[in-house]
Design goal:
The first copy, chain A, is α/β, with parallel strands linked by helices and 328 residues long. Chain A contains twelve helices and 14 strands.
């Protein structure tokens, strides 16, 4: 397979995941790493033979066919736009932006772009297997969904103010999953939430524990269960209740070793966090992006999906603020 | 142990469960079976050496120390009152009555009575084990709950009109479980529900699929997941999310046999219905009632619990009717 | 169903299990309890309305159709013979006798008798389900077997001398299971064993830890894994490896409650001993015996099965003594 | 970390696994690929920037610090010797050679060599976790072991004649595992085996189904369960029975998706073969080899381990031939 050159924008937490996956993909070559922080790009450049560059230089290189936008959230939209307008295929970490208005305003400029939005759960092999069986209809028609998304530990104090809050930063993954699995748009959103984990989060006007209930026009119901601190690992589950049975994607445990004593059967804990749990999902996501870059596939998650999830996240916020169900 | 005579009122579905459990208990003797339907009492009388009798005769017998009220729902309150006023210890199937006003009006007459209400889930050994660990605090402070109560198959058409509807007939179990486990009263109730299983249920102005979200004053959240027809068995689960870990009571599968092939690992289905799933709970419930009858224990579930659960069920109905959250 | 009177011989550990099961069976009535120890019969008599009696009296009662032989092992054969010659249907705890010669000599006198030998594992619902699937051939032809039979804790010191030793007392269950599942007689037996649990067992010339390897004429292989003290509960498992898949009957855990923490997923231990693990098997065994008593079934385990298992147990002993494989 | 140059000898099935793992290791660089078959080295060279070379050239390069011997089994010893004598650190696929005499004769020439033998199971994360707990003694003293090693499907017809037979090719992994876990050498070996999978294997004087029973001087027992064709995937399990409990490393299933219906709970099959099952073990093995190459660790599996496993494999063969237990 011919290798197409890729520029990575942002060598932070997500760039450290997507950059290597692209570099190791047989159809991509990591050519540039763009990061304003001095030295941040170096380790990736050293390891994969890439070059540290400015955004302008990377986008100006006609050999660069694709860009991975992994910068800070407030730069996603600016960088994605620049890359799209330079004619590159773009993978963009979620969310597009925290400001729905900005996202709506930029919408037209993404028409026809090869733009893949980073809702990684859609690429998790277990979740995909569940979706395929759902679509195959073996257990009948989908009626209700239960989505569990519990982070292991509360974010550091400085994270909250720029995060967009629980719903735009975290629940947004589940809102996208819900749309994908329900096959229908939610028409009503109700959210109850509390600050039980860290009072500092409450002082910053955010919540850390929430339950959201979505209803669709045909009567399907979906519960989203969120917490910022599970206390037991990264709990990521889907239960899909259908007319003739139930499909479940369970947690992944650290290993298969079990200790039996007269008191208990003790097995490994569930995986501790997203890098382990979604390792294969991140790879599959880049595999799909490579297919997009090579013109072999249309992006499975696009700009419109980013808008829809953001609108639902705002509906959660509005429901929480007003104490009523909201029509998004 | 001395055996105390018991009268069973109602030889229907629940009477067929509680009657034998009482008859086989070493501290109870099944003396009378009361049922207006000719012949209904006979099989139980034959099997356990009991006598078919009228309610009056059974209550007039001073040797009868305890009464099991297993009549039709609309007779629970009348029969329980008669038994209490005859000085008997009373076990009464849930709900006390479908009409909250009647239940409230009769309240004073149950003051001081030995009255055990049949919320069987509180006696399930797995649920009790979970409760004990919750109380022991090994996983920290309880924050949120997830209760799953899915019936295997929709009730027969004639059942709905007299059932009291999904919330008073079915969800009421979960509302009681929630109160028991949360250790706090819900202060806000939101319910979303649909008729997805059987349109006839909808025509009778009931729903068959619901999600209810309870919030307490301290910010604890509880989701209740209900359906009248799971399509895969009797799904009965509790998940209790705490500050330092999670406690889960899972489904019981039919056996431990597993078949491994290149395509799948196939294990037994979950238990099909309440008689199998709560077999041990029903026994433990009668064990506890025997302790009450013998003066060795106070009833763990009383008249006030019946009122509280009924009030919450009415709040679910009101939330569904108005589309808003309700303060019960 | 007409109830047929039963006499229980022996009110010890096994009599306390089989007696109540017979008493509660709708087709049997526990009429006599025979036990030479003063007072031993009383609790069962009181609970089920039976009468303490001598063996002679019980066997002389023409209304007694069936006898449960639960006396000490050295009395099994004498009591079974007396009951058979009195024309009763006989359920006899295993083993028939520890002395193979005696068992062979008495063989002819059991011709035509309604005699059920107490190999309880054949009645375990999970093991029966596994056998049915094996016979149905869904996973192809059986090739090899793995049987695990680990007792939770070493027997009390006084037990060993009269027990018959590990193979005749304990492994004999697995030797019968192997014959039942293999559908072929073992033609070669090799046993390796040690005394690892309790040196006192070794001083009494017995072993407490053994592995036995059976081969059949068609080349099927079976491993039997035994220990007198598992250290973690009563480990009872079957794995049947077939040409197109594997069937497994796993351990039963105490409940379904699980605790998740960052360090582990902790579930209930396996059941601690045979009364819990084989509770349903013992009931099913008496159900089958009732069918035999009522003339509705032929005994599924007979005198010849007792001989065959005993012969294999002696082959294990001979293999251990000689260090070679033995043709039984 | 400085990268040390590596030469890969053999670009076949195992070379395709170890070569990329070395190439992607931050402390190694894949410099040469040696394979006599024209073109066989090319894909690896292309992908990782290595050079196709003759053995002589690769060994003559003083920059090459390490060699991976992944040639055909009959070349392992020759290639390993050449590399050792050229002063390179050597990773060698198992077995060293099928001919024990040759291996013994060459022994002295490996004295002091940095030589790691490819018994991959010792590097499996789950097996290592089990070993650590065993060594930590949490479940007491090890008494018995059960090792399951079932290949998914019979090897192609041409494989058997040069394979060394079931014991030297396949069981040898378990013999090494047994030595590692028992912490004691087996002093007695008994093997029963059959040809049940493919009559052609029998015609070639080999077996495809075997059970081996090892005993140690202290009385520990170990069962090894082998088949060439499981019919349900790659069954790889360890059970370690200790004085106070049991440790188990179970199979890995393909994903966590489960389907519940009224008839069954259906989960994913176990992994189909060694590339998936031991993917992480192969990586950890190369990680360890890199530590050896960099002088940070002594090889965990050495030449003497290869001899010991081969001697045990010959004891299995002798036991099968003679029908008796063998002292290796």
């Amino acid at each position: 397979m011919e290798r197409i050159d890729v520029a990575l924008i942002g060598a932070g937490r997500m760039g450290q995941i997507h950059g290597p996956n692209a570099a190791l993909h047989p159809g991509l070559r990591l050519k540039y790493v763009v990061d304003p922080r001095p030295g941040a790009a170096m380790p990736l450049c050293d390891r994969f033979g890439a070059t540290a560059a400015t955004l302008d230089r990377a986008l100006a290189d006609p050999g660069v066919g694709a860009v991975l936008v992994c910068s800070s959230t407030d730069q996603h939209l600016v960088h994605a736009l620049a890359a799209v307008e330079a004619g590159k295929a773009v993978f963009c970490e979620k969310p597009i932006d925290l400001d729905l208005q900005k996202v709506l305003q930029a919408r037209a400029r993404f028409d026809g772009a090869r733009f893949l939005l980073g809702f990684n759960r859609r690429f998790d092999p277990a979740f995909r297997a569940l979706k395929q069986r759902l679509d195959a209809g073996d257990t009948g028609r989908l009626e209700t969904l239960h989505l569990v998304n519990h982070d292991p530990a509360a974010p550091p104090p400085g994270f909250v103010p720029t995060s967009g809050g629980l719903f735009k930063d975290f629940t947004i993954h589940d809102l996208d999953l819900a749309r994908w699995l329900l096959g229908e748009e939610p028409v009503r959103v109700y959210t109850a939430a509390s600050c039980l984990v860290d009072p500092e989060i409450g002082r910053l006007d955010d919540v850390d524990t929430a339950r959201t209930l979505l209803s669709t026009a045909s009567g399907r119901l979906c519960v989203i269960s969120n917490t910022r601190r599970s206390g037991y690992g990264y709990d990521q589950r889907i239960e899909a209740f259908c007319s003739r049975g139930m499909l479940r994607a369970g947690n992944v445990h650290g290993d298969t070793v079990c200790t039996l004593t007269p008191d208990a059967s003790t097995a490994a804990a569930i995986l501790p966090g997203f890098p382990e749990r979604y390792r294969d999902a991140y790879r599959a996501q880049i595999d799909h992006f490579a297919d997009v870059v090579h013109g072999r596939a249309e992006p499975l998650v696009g700009y419109a999906d980013g808008i829809a999830a953001l609108e639902l996240a705002e509906a959660c916020q509005a429901s929480l603020r007003t104490g009523t169900a909201i029509q998004p």
